[in-house]
Amino acid sequence: VEEKWGYEGDVMKADALLVKMLGIKGSEWITSRADKLDALGLSGNAPGRESVTFFDPSGRELGGVIIGGSRKSSSENGALSYANSGYRYVKNRAEDDIFLATVSGRIDADPLWWIEKSLLEIPSKDVEKVELRHPLKKDSFSLIGKGDGTFEPEGLKKAKGKGFRNSVINDIAGAMKNLTIRDIMKRESEEAKGLNFDHSYVARLKDGREYAISTASRDGKSWLSIDVSYDGPSSDEMTVKEKERLAPWIFEVASAGSLSYRASDIIEQ
Fold first, then answer.
1. Going by C-beta distance under 8 Å and a sequence separation of 6 or more, which residues neighbour residue 29?
2. What residues have CB less than 8 Å from 14, skipping those under 6 apart?
3. What backbone torsions phi and psi does residue 131 show, to the nearest 5 degrees?
4. What is the band of 234 on the pLDDT scale with cuts at 50, 70, 90?
5. With 70 as the cut, is the pLDDT of residue 75 above it?
6. How far is residue 151's CA from residue 162's CA, in Å, rounded to a whole number?
7. For 14-29, how does the pLDDT look when each residue is reduced to its tens digit (9 = 90+)?
8. Per-residue pLDDT at 157
9. pLDDT at 235
10. What is the largest CA-CA distance in the chain?
11. Whole-number Å distance between alpha carbons of 111 and 123
12. Which residues contact 68 (CB under 8 A, 6 or more apart)?
């Protein structure tokens, strides 16, 4: 997505847009007069106008569609009303003819809509060990996988008659499953300056990969930076690709709560 520093786009959404544009069929010819573009919401400055253009890899325009206003109802001559029914004025970018066609929904012009929102999809069954590191040593702790999909704290003492909160332990172990993005910024950007990444979530996977996720908060938003390494007998192509994908960026997520628990959070009170 060019407006987001070239971050990876959501291919499925792009495919769906192409299918939607190819599926527009004119149900009624309206006019081919250029002086009607304004009145039909198809001119460049018309409010609500939408334009989609497709290009080949060399930048050559392949075609496009301009979508204008909705047809207004008319009670004077008994004409069929299309108001609020999805019927809008449309034209092929390369042609003069204007048609009435069914167009469902609006096209989201926010660049964030078009980026690939999936950040990590690593289930807890693939995790061998998790470390949560905080500025204060008493807040830091580790979870060790027992090999059966469950985890237990390492080096933490339970209060007499108390146990560990398994729901929190499971939340921590599964923190990298379905982790999605709200926004992104470049690590070296001006916007990223001043972020204090003072908490870390370090997960070692059974295949030798290690994800070090540092978290920061500002203005009520949670931000992450992710570094990937590999401790195995040979180089790992997947690690190289993950490092290239994640290293240049800082990611905003809805919440970093599962990544920043403290030791006291997992002990029953």
1. 97, 98, 99
2. 114
3. -120, 130
4. low
5. no
6. 17
7. 999 999 999 999 999 9
8. 80
9. 65
10. 85
11. 29
12. 37, 40, 41, 42, 46, 48, 49, 88, 89, 90, 91, 98
